[in-house]
Structure formats: C-alpha cells, structure tokens
Amino acid sequence: MFEGTVSAALPKREFYGELTMQARALLADETNRVANAANLSALLYQTMPELNWAGFYFLTGGELVVGPFQGKPACVRIAIGRGVCGRAAETRETQVVPDVHAFPGHIACDAASRSEIVIPLVSGAGDLIGVLDLDSPVPARFDDEDRAGLEAVAAVFVGSLGERGTGS
C-alpha cells in the first residue's frame, strides 16, 4: 500500500518537489486515466493543507465532465470557456484565482470555496485531456509557487497516460 506523506511545514518549493516525487511513485507502472486520477486526487487532498476540493474534469463530447475527486459532490458538466475550469480548458493556461467571487462567471459548486487553481491537462500530441482543479475555503490560498508545483504534478499525471494522453 502506498503511504504518501509530505510535510506541509516544508518551504513550498521543497513541498512540491516531494509531492511530485510521490506522485511519480504512486502513478508508476499504471496508465489507466481513472485509476491515476483517483489516486492523485486523494494524494493532493490528503497532503495539501487548506483544500476543500481536489479533482479532475475530463474533456468528453466537447465539454468538461467530472472525474475522480475528493471533497463535496461537484458540478457534473462544465462548458468550455465557462467558469474557472472552462477558462483553463479554453486558454490552456493555468488559472490562479485568489477570490472566486470576483471571477466573472464563476461556478459555485461548493459555497465554501473562496480561491481556486485550475491546471489544464494537455497530451504530448497537444490534445486537451481535461483539467486538474483545486479549491480552498481560504482566500488567496494559491500563488505562483503553487502554480509551478501543481503544473509539475499535473505533468506527472499526463505522462502516466502515455503519448496520446488517454490512458487505458
């Protein structure tokens, strides 16, 4: 059984270095998208402080559809371009939102969420796979160090799926 432990007391750069190594070990030798998303969302939720949601939305039929996650029940479908997740999918750029209430068109799946970070997941072939979404009840929870660290973790996930990024 995998036992992920990263001290939240570490400086962020070290924290994310450890988290990335643990993600790599957790996803090693597995290419199934659902299995890896389930395990990675659990690792993030259990390891990162001040989260109330951590999970995935996958591109399906031209929209984002909820995948494995940790937290309260979530919105099932999100249009590309709508809300923070849809914006990250549309632009293929990480969205760091210090105050979700100030984000035009924010979709409130959990009223307790105050800040959010969404990382687009793009295959080596350049195809959008989906997004990795983390929410926090703490305003301005995420910063540029979180962006860089979570982009590295997301890259481990995408790499685990193989060249096309679809997994088996």
From TrEMBL:
- MF terms (GO), sorted A to Z: L-methionine-(R)-S-oxide reductase activity
Q: Which Pfam families match?
A: GAF
All residue ranges annotated as the GAF domain in the record: 22-166
Report which superkingdom the organism of origin falls in: Bacteria
Q: Where is the signal peptide?
A: none
Q: Which family does it belong to?
A: Belongs to the free Met sulfoxide reductase family.
State the name under which the record lists this protein.
Diguanylate cyclase
| Species assigned in the record | Caballeronia glathei
